[in-house]
Amino acid sequence: MNPIVRTIFRSNVGAFLIFAVILCGANWLLAKGSIPAKPILFVAVLFAVYYNFVFKIAVYTLSGKRKKWIIAFCSLILLVLTTDPILGFLIYSFFPILGVYLDQNMLMENYMYDRIEFRRRWVSALTFIIFLVGLRLVFRLYKSKMREANESKQQTKRLEQEITNLNRLLKARNLNPHFMVNVSAIALHRERMRPNEENMKMLTMLIALMNYQLRMDNDQQTTHWQDEWEQVENLLEMACYKDQNFVYEWRDSNCLADLDTVIPHGLLLMPLENALKYGKNTAKWPLRMVFRKSGDRIHIRYTNYFDPLKRDQIQSTHQGFPLMEARLGGGAWPITMLRQEEGDCFWVDIEIICSTSTTYDDEERKVYDPHDRRSAGIDRSYRDNPKTASKCGRKN
C-alpha cells in the first residue's frame, strides 16, 4: 500500500473508532430515545473524515512553508464551498438509499426539508471538530516542548560533565581555562533558565575548542591553518556571547582563511587568548587583528589595549609566549614572533615564510602604528552584536 494512502487510512480508522465511542456514549447518556447503531456509525465516519481534513489544514497552515500554506488555503476554500452540497447529498439522497436516515423526520409523509436547520447542524458539528483539532494541536505542542526540554536538560547535563572533565584536564596541563570556564558557566546558566539553540551551540563550540587546546603540548605538534583559523573564529564568537561590550576589528586582506599550510598548534590562538584575558576590547579600545600576505610571507598582528593595574592582578603561569617561542625555535620553523609593549598598548607580530626562503626582507615588512586606531582598518567590520571577553589567555 502507498505510504500516503496507508497514513490516511490509519488516521481515519483511528478517528472513526474514537468518534464511534463518543457518539455511542452520548447516545446512551444524553439521547431521549435510543438511536440505532447504523446511523451512529455513519455519523462517526463523517466526523472522522472531516476531523482529519481540518487537522491537515491546521498543520499545513502552521508549518511556515509557503507551498503548504497555499495547499492549506485552497483546502480551506474547498471545505467551505463543498461541505453544504456534499453533506446534503449524502444525508438526504445517498444514505437513505442504504437505509440510513440521520433525520428521523425524513420517514414522515409530510416531511419538509429545512435548509437553515440543516446548515445550523453541520456548522455546529464542524465547530466541535475544530475545537477538537485545537485541543490536539495544543497537546501536540506541549508534548513537543516537553520532549525538547527533557532532551535539552539531558544534553546540558552531558555537556556540563564533559566541560568539567575538560577543565580539570586543562588545569593539569597548565593551560589557563579562565575564559572558557566563564563562557561555560554563562552558557549553562542561560540554558537552564531558557533553553535555546544559541546556548547549546556555544556549549558544543566550547567543548570543541577545549579539546583542540588539549591537543597542544610542549612538543613540536602541528595543525592545519584552516583548523586553527576556525578555532579563532569560535573563540571570538564565544567572546561576543559572553559580554555585550566586546568589540574587535579583523582585517583579512588576502582571504587567508583557506590557506593550505601547516603551523605550530596554537600559533594563532595563543595571542588571541592573551588579548581576551588582559585587553580592554571595547569600542574605544578594540582588539585588532590584521592578516595579510606579501609575496611568500604572511604577516599577522594582534593589538590590544589594557589596564596595567588590572593586568597585574590577574593570576597567570606566564608560560604562553615562552612555550610558543621555544616551540618555534626548537622546530626550526620559518616563523618569527615579536611581542612588544608601549604604555597601555600590547601587540604581537608574527611573520610566516611560506616558501623555502630562509631570509627576511625588512623592506617588505609593513610596520603598523599600534596607537593609530585607524591603521588596521575594518575590512571584516564589527560584529552585529559587539561584545567583550577579557579574562582568558596568558599574561603579556
Keywords:
disordered C terminus; Heat Shock Protein 90; 5-stranded mixed beta sheet; alpha+beta; two-stranded antiparallel ribbon
Low-confidence stretches: 356-396
State the assembly state of the protein chains.
Answer: single chain
On the 0-100 scale, what is the average pLDDT?
78
What distance separates the N and C termini?
Answer: 71 Å
Query: Order of strands in the sheet with the most strands?
Result: 2-4-5-7-6
Number of helices: 10
Q: In the CATH classification, which architecture of the domain at 244-396 applies?
A: 2-Layer Sandwich
From the spread of the alpha carbons, the general shape counts as: rod-shaped
Order of helices and strands: HHHHHHEHEEHEEHHEE
**Proportion of helical residues:** 55-70%
Going by helix content, strand content and strand pairing, the class is alpha+beta
Q: Which topology of the domain at 244-396 does CATH recognise? A: Heat Shock Protein 90
Radius of gyration: 35 Å
How many runs of DSSP E, i.e. beta strands? 7
Largest sheet: 5 strands, mixed
- Estimate the strand proportion: 5-15%
CATH class of the domain at 244-396: Alpha Beta
Task: Describe this structure as you would to a colleague.
The chain has 396 residues and is an alpha+beta fold. Among the domains are: 3-113, no CATH class; 244-396, Heat Shock Protein 90 (2-Layer Sandwich), CATH 3.30.565. 56% of the residues lie in helices and 11% in strands. The strands form two sheets. A five-stranded mixed sheet has the order 2-4-5-7-6, covered by helices on one side. The termini are far apart.
